[in-house]
Amino acid sequence: MKLSVRLMIRILRNLPLRGFYSMATFIYLLMYHILRYRRNVVRKNLSKAFPEKSDRELHAIENAFYRHLADYLVETVAIFKMNEQDFDKRYHLMNVELLDQYAERGINVILAPGHYGNWEWICYLVHKIRFRSIAVYKKQSSRFVDELILRSRGKYGLLLLQYHETYRYLLSADPSIPICLLFLADQRPVARTKMEWIRFMNQDTAAFRGLENLHAKMKGVVLFVYIKKIRRGYYELEFKPLNHPGEVSADKELTRRYFRELEVNIREDPRYYLWSHNRWKFAPPAEVSG
After folding, report:
1. How far, in whole angstroms, is CA 247 from its chain's centroid?
2. Are 71 and 26 in contact (CB under 8 A)?
3. Residue 137 Cα distances to 16, 20, 99, 212, angstroms
4. pLDDT digit string (tens) for 271-285?
5. How many domains are contained in the chain?
6. 10 Å Cβ neighbour count for 212?
7. pTM assigned to the model
8. Can you say whether the dihedral through the CA atoms of 204, 206, 208, 209 is positive or negative?
9. CA pseudo-torsion sign 196, 237, 110, 105
10. pLDDT tens digit string along 163-208?
11. Are 108 and 135 in contact, with CB atoms under 8 Å apart?
């Protein structure tokens, strides 16, 4: 398996970046027009999230989403090709100095992007900040995909840990060295016993408790990562604090703040959210929906 991954990486390194986007156009045609990949899920999600939009408007978002999804897939693989100069040019960090201020004060930080734009490239942030950087990741069922993710996200030294491993790491870490933890907080919960229910994109939504739990262990500041796609292959990121250092938030308050910011990010340009994910698979209990 590792040999297959190394062989693929070697091939990709010889492919110019413009070649990746030629591949993306082909992938879009294949996914959208031939395989019709998860079109029912995408249409259901869009129609419920935007009941005020016409069928024509929803179809335009749907089509653009698949074009972006194809770009995202090839950009994920392009990590193996790109160097720091490529990332600096294509992935602009608007206020990275905010992270420098927290690092100087020894304050732990949780970076919480959503499945919006290109969230994979954030792994390159490691070489721009002065934290010990870790990320929560979910082990993949495919060994090949799992190895690919570990290699791509760990390219600049980001330590990837599964959720249960993250707790052990935080408990044993040297408290004198600030930690930056990356966590995609809009994941759908797996177990119903670990759900919180919030209102998100016009729907009652099952939210994972991880953001609140991790903050309780780390303290510090949670930063929402606002992502904007400027054009094909170019993004801007802005970090927005969801709390103040030392603030004790009410139950579920950080989760609510996170999803409010994510909804703002999505509604500004809905083409770039991961609509193919069956995010609203679980129906809310009667006391929530009623």
Report:
1. 25
2. no
3. 29, 25, 22, 17
4. 999 999 999 988 887
5. 1
6. 19
7. 0.91
8. positive
9. negative
10. 889 988 988 888 889 999 999 999 888 766 667 899 999 999 999 8
11. no
Residue 119 CA to residue 257 CA, distance in Å, equals 19
Measured at the alpha carbon of residue 260, what is the angle toward residues 198 and 56, in degrees to the nearest 5?
95
Question: Which domain, by its residues, includes 42?
Answer: 2-289
For the record, the structure tokens of 40 come out as 């029912």
Three-state SS string over the chain comes to CHHHHHHHHHHHHCCCHHHHHHHHHHHHHHHHHHCCCCHHHHHHHHHHHCCCCCHHHHHHHHHHHHHHHHHHHHHHHHCCCCCHHHHHHHEEECCCHHHHHHHHCCCCEEEECCCECCCHHHHHHHHHCCCEEEEECCCCCCHHHHHHHHHHHCCCCCEEECHHHHHHHHHHCCCCCCEEEECCCCCCCCCHHHEEEEEECCEEEEEECHHHHHHHHHCCEEEEEEEEEEECCEEEEEEEECCCCCCCCCCCHHHHHHHHHHHHHHHHCHHHECCCCCCCCCCCCHHHHC
d(CA 27, CA 70): 6
Of 29, 278, 277, 231, which Cα lies nearest the Cα of 118? 231
Query: What is the spatial distance between Cα 133 and Cα 178, in angstroms, rounded to a whole number?
Result: 9
Cα–Cα nearest to 221, from 253, 248, 243? 243
